[in-house]
Amino acid sequence: MTPRASTGTIPAPPPLPAFAEGTRSGTGPLSAEMLIVCLDPEDATATLASFLDANNIVFDTALAGPEAILGRITRVMQPLSPQPLALPSELEACSAALCTELQSMPKLKLVLTLGISAHIVVLGACGIPLSRLDFRPGEITHLPDGLLLADGCHFPNTPFPAEMMTQRRSALTELSPKIRAALRPTV
After folding, report:
1. What's the number of CA atoms in the CB half-sphere (13 Å) around residue 147?
2. Tens digits of per-residue pLDDT, 79-120?
3. DSSP per residue over 115-170, as a string?
């Protein structure tokens, strides 16, 4: 993974510290091929349980068979303020932390973002200006450095209209085969 995918307005990151496996905050190993970026990792694990099971996405190398997708959920966005919208300075700090985490993941192929804030943080971490790539739920985009970006919707933990929650689950279900095909292409 390149330090920055393009020359954006974000300054170059400081030199990377060496991270041993399991020392970064998150669920799953740094050797994962898929990273999930979301606002609340604990809630995401429970909310995404059926999606994870259906796609054979595991967070433990001991459970990763040949067809399993080894995943990781990062916690870089967990410290965001509980405001309806994150502050730009908070998103910038999350982008810097995520940049370091991305560079510590040598086998990473795909990042699944859950929500617009996660999408913004990933673009910032990759040095891609926001004006270059819209948030497109249900779509997978090839970034300039080869990383795949899959956009999904955020699943709030507050009361939410059932119809909207059903639409978001449906969109993620429709994204599932695209993710599997991107990570396990058939020959």
Report:
1. 30
2. 676 666 778 888 999 999 999 999 999 999 999 999 899 999
3. SHHHHHHHHHHHT--GGG----TT-EEE-TTS-EEEEE----SS---HHHHHHHHH
Q: What pTM was computed for the model?
A: 0.82
A 10 A CB-CB count for 142 gives 10
Q: If one looks up domain 26-183 in CATH, what number appears?
A: 3.40.470.10
pLDDT at 10 over 60: no
Tokens of 37: 């970026």
Tell me if residue 69 falls in helix, strand or coil.
Answer: strand
How far apart (Å, rounded) are the C-alpha atoms in residues 72 and 36? 6
Residue 107 to residue 118: CA distance in whole angstroms: 21
CB 29 within 8 A of CB 61: yes
pLDDT tens-digit series, residues 20-46 = 444 457 889 999 999 999 888 877 777
- Closest CA relative to residue 51, chosen from 173, 160, 138, 139: 173
Closest C-alpha to 111, from 96, 128, 100, 123 = 123
In angstroms, the CA 161 to CA 16 distance is 43
- The span from the CA of 158 to the CA of 145, in Å, is 36
Query: Is residue 52 within a helix (H) or strand (E), and if so which, with residue range?
Result: helix 49-54
